[in-house]
């Protein structure tokens, strides 16, 4: 049973763990895209309204700047905040003297880990998968230790071998008095020694 159960638990545990990670990634990626989309919508609305300093609700996620050919600068309010440029990925587009810049915050592992705190379901799925996987490893190790111990017990120790050989010697010595029974007993002892040495019993 353990021979089949341990690999099954390991595979099932790995799949459930990966499912938990995928759920967390989906939540993180979709939340990030939603925030960037919200910021972009606010920037476009600010442009349409004629604002030059556009307020973003999710200012830590993105920065937008537009420099017109006439020298006018339209930007989001977080562009004047002390933000680290290296924390953002930038892209730009130019046409007819107008230059548009977009800065999107880099994917952060710490932000990804925060998903597990904010959404315990993803954490629970991952942990349950990990527990199943580790249970499979423990069962596999126990089975291997059990097999090794069984194999050791199946083989004769030196003391057992010496005792059986002495019994064989006595059986041969008795063959003159009771030949048939002694030979039969000797054969049994030899068969037992051979089987134990080969690990068949």
Question: What would you say this structure looks like, in words?
Answer:
This protein has 201 residues and is an alpha+beta fold. It is 64% helix and 14% strand. The protein contains five helices and five strands; from the N terminus they run H-E-E-E-E-E-H-H-H-H. Strands 1-3-2-5-4 form a five-stranded mixed beta sheet. Strand 4 (88-95) and strand 5 form a beta hairpin. The longest helix has 48 residues, at 2-49.
Report mean pLDDT, rounded to a whole number: 77
Please give the alpha-carbon distance between the first and last residues. Answer: 21 Å
- Unreliable stretches, pLDDT < 50, 5 or more residues? none
Give the C-alpha Rg.
38 Å
**Number of helices in the DSSP assignment:** 5
**H and E string:** HEEEEEHHHH
Strand content: 5-15%
Rough outline? rod-shaped
Q: How would you name the oligomeric state of the polypeptide chains in this document?
A: single chain
Q: How are the strands of the biggest sheet laid out side by side?
A: 1-3-2-5-4
> Could you estimate the helical fraction of the residues in percent?
55-70%
Query: How many extended strands?
Result: 5
Largest sheet: 5 strands, mixed
Structural class: alpha+beta
């Amino acid at each position: 049973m353990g021979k089949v159960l341990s690999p099954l638990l390991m595979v099932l545990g790995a799949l459930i763990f990966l499912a938990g990670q995928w759920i967390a990634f989906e939540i993180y990626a979709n939340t990030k895209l939603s925030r960037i989309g919200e910021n972009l919508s606010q920037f476009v609305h600010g442009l349409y309204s004629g604002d030059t300093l556009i307020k973003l609700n999710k200012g830590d996620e993105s920065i937008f700047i537009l420099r017109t050919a006439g020298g006018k600068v339209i930007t989001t309010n977080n562009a004047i905040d002390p933000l680290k440029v290296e924390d953002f990925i930038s892209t730009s587009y130019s046409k007819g003297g107008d230059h548009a810049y977009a800065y999107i915050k880099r994917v952060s592992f710490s932000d990804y880990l925060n998903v597990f705190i904010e959404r315990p379901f993803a954490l629970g799925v991952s942990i349950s998968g990990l527990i199943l996987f580790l249970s499979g490893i423990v069962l596999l190790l126990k089975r291997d230790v059990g097999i090794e111990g069984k194999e050791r017990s199946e083989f004769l120790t030196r003391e057992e071998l010496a005792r059986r050989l002495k019994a064989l010697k006595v059986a041969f010595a008795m063959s003159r008095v009771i030949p048939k029974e002694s030979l039969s007993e000797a054969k049994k002892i030899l068969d037992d020694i051979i089987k134990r040495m080969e690990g068949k019993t």
